[in-house]
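Pilot study result, target chain (162 residues):
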Amino acid sequence: MIIRGRALVYGDKIDTDVIIPARYLVYTDPALLGQHAMESVDPDFPKKARGAIVVAGRAFGMGSSREQAALALKGAGVLAVIAESFARIFFRNAINVGLPVMQVPGITKRVREGDELEVNLESGYCLNLNTGEKIVGKPVTGLPLSILRAGGLLNYLKQQSR
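Predicted structure:
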């Protein structure tokens, strides 16, 4: 599974309250949630997110266990999230809603805002098309990869029941 997009770079410890503030948790529409994604750290995020790959530091998605955080990023048009590390529950929520995620240690030191990236989830690499540097991460394999290919857990389960 290969994804191409431009990088939006953020730092460490972006928590779920930052990704989607609690006041919007009454909504379930991904597009509406996406209009408010990351608004406290980047008010222009919804305008920049479509077709982008979020690149982040350590502990991305820490904090409250809210599925809406991954859903908001997907609803904003984010193609994938590549981070040095993830909160485990965010990582799983992202897989479940069909938002590709991959752990790539040291990524924030090697990618700049606006760089064009190619991410290969199965091989576990991120290629910075601006610099030509191939950055190795942890591949997504097995059931998580199958769920992402299906577009999320619900789609995966529907396919399995046929």
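One observation from the pilot: The mean pLDDT is 96. A full batch analysis is planned for the follow-on phase.
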